Amino acid sequence: MTQARQLVVPPVAMAGQPLAAVSTPALVIDLDAFGSNLKQMAGLAGAAGMALRPHAKAHKSVAIAQRQVAAGATGICCQKLTEAYPFAAAGIASIHLSNEFIGADKAAMAAELAARTQLSLCVDDPRQVHEVGAAAAHAGVKIDVLPEVDAGQGRCGVSSADALMALVEAIDTYPALRFAGLQGYHGGAQHVRGWQQRRETAQRAAELTAGYLRHLEARGLRCQVVTGGGTGTAEFDIASGVYTEIQPGSYLFMDADYGANEWSGAFRPEHSLFIAATVMSATRPGHAVCDVGLKTVAVDSGLPRVWSRQATTLR
């Protein structure tokens, strides 16, 4: 009896195949648009002498992070500790955790990461400082800590000068921690549709952040890093004179939600990431059923849209 051949799912695609030969659904990247976005953002920040720290939550890919660093990024951002581990293990030299966390277990993870990479993190409550300070001291590592200030979104970050000073004082009590600056991020500003309206929202966020900087400077405290901003406000954050570092992430790929924004001529990222799909049933006029469904796409920003321009070859 002939032994049954092992069942193996065939590859979705191979390099060099035409797009029509790609098995769907498939995630595909237009490398020309990807490269243009990569170069455009790096050039925008570099021309202004500003640090670029792209947000890796947009891709969660070590290979892409390495390309961003090679293009001039000072490091990356991660949104949570577990997200940072693969990047630290791969040798990304500088990682900023742009969200708060709480718990002794999380603080121990931060200390472990700090032994492998230059780590900075955000706090908006003294309890976070105390847990990280104790963990860093126990592990014998140094961690940069940035209090986050509310830049107008009303989400994370302290909203008073007194609360900010309480954080700075708490950081100062731990030799294993270093006060490294501030984070002022307004997520909602990224998706204000009109270019002028988005610019005004970003300017208000920068002004709020600048107010906290002036309060610190009046007390002899200077911030080495002022970080924030994103894809939608990058050009405004760079021009503000407040930030030293920006954190865009979606600029590499774009999506339908960012695509609904109005963009200026100075900064116009392109769509580079797509889901290739096939119509598998069309029995009713005006309706088409695709092989990509709710388990394949996110709909928190609305349903996906059909893209009109098509590449001919998978690169």
Describe this structure in words.
There is one protein chain. With 315 residues, the chain is of the alpha/beta class. The chain has two domains: 1-30 and 272-315, no CATH class; 31-259, TIM Barrel (Alpha-Beta Barrel), CATH 3.20.20. Helices cover 34% and strands 14% of the residues. The protein is built from nine helices and 13 strands. The protein has helices at residues 31-47, 62-70, 81-89, 104-114, 126-139, 161-172, 195-217, 234-240, 256-259; strands at residues 26-29, 51-52, 76-78, 94-97, 118-123, 143-147, 177-179, 181-183, 225-228, 245-246, 273-276, 279-281, 289-290. The strands form four sheets. The protein has a five-stranded parallel β-sheet. A four-stranded parallel β-sheet has the order 2-10-9-8, covered by helices on one side. Helix 5 links the parallel strand 5 (118-123) and strand 6 (143-147). Helix 3 (81-89) packs parallel to helix 4 and helix 5 packs parallel to helix 6. The longest helix has 23 residues, at 195-217. The chain is globular. Residues 311-315 have low confidence and may be disordered.
Structure summarized in a few sentences:
With 315 residues, the protein is of the alpha/beta class. The protein has helices spanning 31-47, 62-70, 81-89, 104-114, 126-139, 161-172, 195-217, 234-240, 256-259; strands at 26-29, 51-52, 76-78, 94-97, 118-123, 143-147, 177-179, 181-183, 225-228, 245-246, 273-276, 279-281, 289-290.
